[in-house]
Design a protein that fits this description.
Elements: H1 6-25, E1 29-30, E2 36-38, H2 39-46, H3 51-56, E3 59-61, E4 67-70, H4 75-84, E5 94-103, E6 115-124, H5 129-145, E7 152-157, H6 164-177, H7 184-192, H8 206-211, H9 221-236, E8 242-243, E9 255-262, E10 271-277, H10 281-284, E11 292-298, H11 299-306, E12 321-325, H12 328-343, E13 348-350, H13 357-367, E14 371-375, H14 377-382, E15 384-389, E16 394-399, H15 402-412
Parallel strand pairs: 1-5, 7-8, 12-13, 12-14
Antiparallel strand pairs: 2-4, 3-4, 5-6, 6-11, 7-9, 9-10, 10-11, 14-15, 15-16
Helix pairs in contact: 1-5, 5-9
């Protein structure tokens, strides 16, 4: 573990301020969960057979005989809080971010100690590929605001409960035939949790893994369509992504989209952030079926990437906006628009549930936004959007231009 003195603490504070500012722009509220949770939460959530559960958790038994663990990651605790407080009953799409220390008894290395810190984001309540795109957009915006130069995004789909078992069987058979060429850890993983073998960093396993079947070749039609929608959504926002078929991530709860972001500034251990979709975790922890997605950034690694760059949080706008999108083409427009407004310092939201116009306005009211921008086929044909001041109840048309919208919203702040 490490001590942080004032000069370095100022850089930490700037990074945390940037994280909070970006969270607000994307409509994510801060959540704070305990450092200590029941050990069973992480065993059920992260999964037996993972290195985290088997080797790295700081666990102990309290005076009452209960197994407790210092949190090794943030997602399981957020889901536990979401269920314990019955948020799913009142909030259709819950968006949270967190900042704080995590604990893993792993080999210390550059940018990773046994107490390390994360900025993480979780969004619970939508299975739309557009939500995956939003959290990747948020991540890349934050990394840029934090001074990370040329972050590299790699992405894959690990399928779902329908298609992954078929892949698991094929991978397991492949690994059994090559057991002698695997490290001791991977020989054990091949029997208990073969997907974890694909995440091995041991050089002796690399030749085997490079020849192994990949999960993206075994996706069901639903997962294949979802992944293509994610890739198209990223392209719509101009976010470059490299497909890596071998990418699986080291936690059991991931489904469909998984991604990692790398920086050449970090050397061999070059991952600065990672995340993906976890559609089954809420159900696995005792709640109703609830699709979700998120990511985490290692702040120690982030600060190594940023070097001496001054981290400047983006300006948080005084007014917020909700984009009501009517039709598929409007949804693509909405994704570009909310992303652009956020980068202009204006908090912006849109729907990810393919809901009716009335339902979208209802959600805008619930979110308490100041303005609603509406675009359908009629508005698109005129090159206009409807702009409604929710406080005054007045609606008018303005040009369908990001610059015009941003200026109109900023004028409304005065």
């Amino acid at each position: 573990m490490q001590d942080v003195f004032p000069d370095e603490a100022r850089r930490w504070a700037a990074a945390e301020a940037a994280a909070r500012a970006v969270g607000v722009l994307y409509g994510y509220g801060e959540i704070r969960t305990p450092l200590v949770e029941a050990t069973s939460l992480f065993v059920r959530g992260i999964g037996e057979g993972t290195d985290i559960v088997d080797k790295e958790m700081f666990s102990f038994t309290d005076a009452g005989g209960k197994g407790l663990t210092l949190r090794p990651e943030g997602t399981a605790g957020v889901v536990r809080a979401y269920l314990e407080h019955h948020v799913y009953k009142t909030v259709p799409l819950a968006r949270y971010f967190y900042l704080g220390p995590m604990f893993r008894r792993e080999r210390p290395q550059a940018g990773r100690r046994r107490q390390f810190h994360q900025f993480g984001v979780e969004a619970l309540g939508s299975d739309e590929a557009a939500l995956d795109v939003e959290i990747v957009d948020l991540l890349m915006f934050f990394l840029g605001a934090a001074g990370v130069r040329a972050p590299r995004l790699e992405i894959n789909s690990v399928g779902c409960a329908d298609c992954r078992p078929i892949y698991r069987e094929k991978l397991q058979a492949f690994l059994r035939d090559r057991s002698a060429d695997l490290c001791a850890d991977c020989r054990a993983r091949a029997e208990r949790n073969p997907l974890r073998v694909m995440d091995c960093k041991n050089p002796c396993c690399r030749p085997v893994l490079e020849a192994a079947p990949v999960v993206s070749d075994h996706l069901c039609p639903g997962c294949r369509d979802h992944f293509q929608a994610v890739l198209s959504g990223l392209e719509n926002l101009g976010i470059a992504a490299v497909r890596r078929p071998s990418l699986v991530r080291g936690l059991d709860y991931y489904t469909r989209t998984v991604f990692e972001v790398y920086s050449d500034s970090l050397g061999a251990q070059d991952a600065v952030a990672a995340g993906g979709r976890y559609d089954d975790l809420v159900r696995d922890l005792g709640g109703p079926p609830t699709p979700a997605a998120g990511f985490s950034v290692g702040l120690e690694r982030l600060l190594l990437c940023a070097g001496d760059v001054t981290i400047q949080p983006p300006r948080s706008g005084k007014k917020s906006v909700y984009c009501v999108c009517i039709g598929e083409e409007a949804a693509a427009w909405g994704a570009r628009t909310v992303s652009g407004l956020r980068r202009a310092g204006i908090p912006a939201l849109m729907d990810y549930g393919n809901r009716s116009t009335r339902a979208q306005f209802r959600e805008a009211n619930r979110a308490g936004v100041d303005f609603v921008v509406t675009r359908g086929e009629a508005e698109a044909g005129r090159g206009k959007v409807k702009f409604k001041d929710m406080g005054e109840g007045v609606e008018r048309e303005v040009a369908d231009s990001l610059d015009v919208l941003a200026e109109t919203i900023k004028k409304g702040e005065g």
